[in-house]
Amino acid sequence: MATPAPTSRFPGLSPAAVWHHFATLCAIPRPSKAEGAVRDAVEAWARGRGLATRLDAVGNLLIRKPAHPGREGAPTVAIQGHLDMVTQKNGDSAHDFTRDPIRTEVQDGWVVAPETTLGADNGLGVAMALAALEDDTLAHGPLEVLLTIDEESGMSGAHGLEPQALEARLMLNLDTEEWGEFYLGCAGGVDVDASESFQPEPVPAGHVVLAITVRGLRGGHSGINIHEGRGNAIRALVGVLGALGNGVRLASFDGGTARNAIPREATAVVVLPAAAAEGLKDRLAAEQARLRRALDAEPGLELVGVPATAAALLPAGAAQRWMEALGTAPFGVARMSADVPGVVETSNNLGVVRLSAEKGHANLMVRSLVDAEFLRLGKSIAAHFESRGIGARLSGEYPGWKPNPSSKLLALCQKAYTDTFHADSHVQVIHAGLECGIIGAKYPGLDTVSFGPTIRGAHAPGERVEIESVGRCYQLLRTILERV
What we know:
The protein has about 475 residues and is α+β, with helices and mostly antiparallel strands. It folds into two domains: about 5-185 and about 400-484, Aminopeptidase (3-Layer(aba) Sandwich), CATH 3.40.630; about 190-400, Alpha-Beta Plaits (2-Layer Sandwich). The chain is about 30% helix and about 25% strand. The protein has twelve helices and 21 strands. The strands form four sheets. Strands 9, 10, 11, 12, 13, 14, 15, 16 and 17 form a nine-stranded antiparallel beta sheet that branches. Strands 1-2-6-3-7-19 form a six-stranded mixed beta sheet, with helices on one face. A hairpin with a 2-residue loop joins strand 4 (about 105) and strand 5 (about 110). Helix 5 packs across helix 7 and helix 10 packs across helix 12 (about 465-484). The two termini are about 30 Å apart. About 50% of the residues are buried.
């Protein structure tokens, strides 16, 4: 690509071309809705290789490569991934996702970002697609590489894709996170956005101001990890504030950073009479012990209170309504699938809350394998907020990807896997959202299969990818393209 890749970042890792491209992606900031720099670098790289490129109206990049000599009659295959990444970091990290490269380490067979998300989701899918484009030894038919924007923050790239952009009728999506599995379906979803404006109130004299923080939770992907009993820092902190009693006034509340990431941290700035502040350290310690008992999957949970400042307060009635709404709103698994054993059918993530003395906003992401169910639950949650005088609306609706068990592309992929690795693969439906359903709705009859390397901790700091699975995944991609 145009930006020099820090090739020393992954010395000796194979396939070298894949890790070279991933190193470049790690070097260029690419948060959702700010993919311009990385997209420009990829486009410049493709043009430098003589490949045809096209930007559509919303900013997706399409790259085309002619067939290898003698393979001109083969069907066109699209390889699809997204350019953006979830931007999560530890609370004590100074990393700036708008400016800084991702810091990576190689640890015991994994590539890890110790303090932030790694962007293996979906940077390695993009890197494999680019490696396939530059591999002149690969005997493939016509190729299209579709790199979308904003997948992690609303899927506006897939939504805005023009129905006539792709020529392919076969598509390989490289955005899953469990090597050895082919995905043939995924959840759809919708966001619930709740909001309200306030008239600030003054801070009473003689009161103490504290910032109370829940931190140290595991977080994770709101589709993949939602059923694992992981704590939600927003919900935990709301419970703590309720336990502290009615004398506590709220100046602000900040929890979560992304709608599709389980919140790891939340902080409330509170004001309380000096007398009520006595013994608060012991009360917080008791609440921490209670939370650790209730959330046995969160051994690292901490609850801390430190002095703070506040210029104004939320109206008492508004704060009470918001705490009630957040404390009783559904979150987590609503229902397991009756059709796909062991897979969540419907869930909701209480992802982001921002309350100040002037305004409040909450974002909840609802997913389901059944489109009617995510709409039903979304409307129910919106009504939950509205019943407390808080405005709420649904936004960002996207359809699920309905499985096609008779997919010819799936049969080809499974045969390629078995022949290459002498083992059986597995077919799955995933509760997370992929762009396949949206793209498929624009291209009826598009035969799509998704696969990828093993990624752990996506959407949370410490995200990692298994090195061996990356090599196997690229080997499988090459085999599939040669056999189509």
